Amino acid sequence: MLSEVLLVSAPGKVILHGEHAVVHGKVALAVALNLRTFLRLQPHSTGKVGLNLPNIGIKQAWDVASLQLLDTSFLEQGDITALTPEQVEKLKEVAGCPEDCANDHKWLAVLAFLFLYLSICRKQRWTEEDLELINKWAFQGERVIHGNPSGVDNTVSTWGGALRYQQGKISSLKRPPALKILLTNTKVPRSTKALVAGVRNRLLKFPEIVAPVLTSIEAISLECERVLAEMASAPTPGHYLVLEELIDMNQHHLNALGVGHASLDQLCQVTTAHGLHSKLTGGGGGGCGITLLRPDLQRLEVEAAKQALTGCGFDCWETSIGAPGVSVHAATSLDAPILQALDGI
């Protein structure tokens, strides 16, 4: 079933522009973030394959020999939503799910892992159909978290690069040059579901005010898309100045929608003091913000900004956007710090 170490990684995701507007049919631009989550599958002498998810209280193990005896032909269709009730029950039985797990979302992770392990993880190379299946499972996770997600998050993490999203239609953008950013976590918890509902309520209450704000956010997304397309062939300092203006305008619009937060205001103020431009990314109400790093910045300037942000109690990472999507790796292809971190698990 699994004869050697299998290393899989997936990128993070940030929304460049279009937060909340996308829920109302507007254009959003999303990019894969080069901060990756790694999964290591490796054989053990116990003859079992295990799944340990301590954050949600899941620890399961299966006998590999028993899994090898299973008739997994029904998995070849590659879509769990097409399984019959009897096949779903069989998968639950193999997974060891309790009888009362129907409404317990954490068991979705167990079924997803086992389904993907049996149907995909044995392969050395993933096909487009495999990636579609991964994307479908990731979307199910998004439904648990967000209620009625747009599908942007799971799609960009699966396929990578940069995507344009509108009303369920997703298209890839020509990749711009590597844009360096700071990703800052304010550590303020928030509910994306509640924030989305808040914007919807504000739209119903003040339609003539909020609808134009959403339209303006879409215009910012479209202008950013145009600039990124130009930068793909010949980036100039002027392009970065336009991107900074768009970031500032979008942040003000998002505050008008009611999804800002004092911590995000502080983030923007700190980076502005260092000549940088920032905005929230995602649901808002806390969470994370992104800061564009122009290529002409000196190393000391970047480090000073990072130090100021961490001095506020925030976590800050320097990274880039437009990363590859979910990938299988050979151990020899990974950097030493990643291998050391995996070995320490």
UniProtKB/TrEMBL annotation:
SUPFAM superfamilies: GHMP Kinase, C-terminal domain, Ribosomal protein S5 domain 2-like. It holds the Pfam family GHMP_kinases_C. It is an enzyme of class 2 (transferase). Its EC number is 2.7.1.36. Pathway: Isoprenoid biosynthesis; isopentenyl diphosphate biosynthesis via mevalonate pathway; isopentenyl diphosphate from (R)-mevalonate: step 1/3. Residues 245-297 form the GHMP kinase C-terminal domain. GO terms for molecular function: ATP binding; metal ion binding; mevalonate kinase activity. One of its GO terms (cellular component) is cytoplasm. Keywords: ATP-binding, Cytoplasm, Kinase, Lipid biosynthesis, Lipid metabolism, Magnesium, Metal-binding, Nucleotide-binding, Steroid biosynthesis, Steroid metabolism, Sterol biosynthesis, Sterol metabolism, Transferase. The keyword ATP-binding applies. It is found in: Cytoplasm. InterPro entries: GHMP_kinase_C_dom (IPR013750), GHMP_kinase_C_sf (IPR036554), Mev_gal_kin (IPR006205), Ribosomal_Su5_D2-typ_SF (IPR020568), Ribsml_uS5_D2-typ_fold_subgr (IPR014721). GO terms for biological process: isopentenyl diphosphate biosynthetic process, mevalonate pathway; sterol biosynthetic process. Belongs to the GHMP kinase family. Mevalonate kinase subfamily. This is mevalonate kinase. The lineage of its organism: Eukaryota, Metazoa, Chordata, Craniata, Vertebrata.
